[in-house]
Amino acid sequence: MPDLPNDLAAFWLPFTDNRGFKAEPRLLARARDMHYWTPDGRQILDGTAGLWCVNAGHTRPRIVEAIQAAAAELDFAPTFNLAHPLAFKLASRVAEIAPDGLDHVFFTNSGSEAVDSALKIALAYQRSVGQGSRTRLIGRARAYHGVNFGGVSVGGIVNNRRSFLNLPGVDHLPHTYNHAEQAFSRGEPAWGAHLADALEDLVNLHGAETLAAVIVEPVAGSTGVLAPPKGYLQRLREITRRHGILLIFDEVITGFGRLGAPFAAQALGVTPDMITMAKGLTNGAVPMGAVAVADSVHRAIVDNAAPGIELFHGYTYSGHPLAAAAGLAAIETYAEEGLFARGAELAGYWADAIHGLRDAPHVVDIRTIGLVAGIELAPRADAAGARGKTVFHRCFDDGLLIRVTGDIIALSPPLIISTAQIDEIVGRIRDALGQVG
Ligand SMILES: Cc1ncc(COP(=O)(O)O)c(C=O)c1O
Questions:
Q1: pTM (predicted TM-score)
Q2: Is 329's C-beta closer than 6 angstroms to any atom of ligand 1?
Q3: Domains of the chain
């Protein structure tokens, strides 16, 4: 018998229409490799790696066993003025797969915490190199950087910002999407590198001496899969370097193989000063985030500090033993099974299959890069998001998990997906689009 809850009232679901959900709940009970199962035993093909997390597929035995062993050996160890071996091992392993020079790793428990940690490290760095006037942070429109105050402030999603206090001293670049110039793009769109020059405008407006850091997602995920225009990130790198501004890539969704390399920085050929990560770091199995930090940034903060604590920041669970064990096992799984490269190997098949939906009802744009896709639907008149939500429900009830943000379907399956399963995703979406008004 499935173990069903008898009361849905107490759990307040995050980022959810709670009234709608509780009127018609959809639950997941177990998972294996490419699939979930509902409590009543229906199989659901996972087109989203959970929530961009489970890059090696679900409940992989090596990761499960590593967590079980860690739980039995060392359930918790503080990492304030103490530590344990697994946290060091994982930090070294992350540094190994990160771009050259990003040699130091600060652990958090989530992507949101990784973002706020990176922003604080940027401010600490500027102070430590005698640039204390550089306190301004630059984000971008249509960006998602999690839900903590720093991430919300540099983020560019109106609903996430409107009801909350935003940090002062934050400005935003324009987003990089232009339907007329970029529709139905495969990989990096050819048009739009010049949009990075908006950073020069912000330098002129505020003065470089006030700018601490720029944070961008290499591929914006949560606002509908927006790949960077060819040359855009290179140009941001050049401008930030020239003006002494740190560049942070938020790789919470692009990390761990999504674009066919360990990080998007490598896939796209641009090295930032910091990379934030989470999700795929442990294959989603234990909550954990991290910031990979350039040696120059780390040295400036640590070497210039007065004796004692160099950075007044950290979490009780930074480098938690269970998460560290899961992270090590996840990275070994990715490496041994060639999953860091698989997003690149599958990208052509994936793009051909997904772009085959171009003629499906309601589709107004399709964007693919690596093993990610955004399928944009025309909104219903006066009901933005309603069509997307209906497609989500239709797919789920038909055995496919997709993600929708508004009227955009975002796909990011586990990297172990087969070509037959890619075809299955496309077929089920086509069916759903044919059924919804
Ligand atoms: C780019 C990016 N940054 C940060 C986050 C926040 O991560 P978390 O939900 O683990 O706090 C997300 C989550 O989807 C994300 O996509």
A1: 0.98
A2: no
A3: 18-56+338-435 (3.90.1150.10), 64-336 (3.40.640.10)
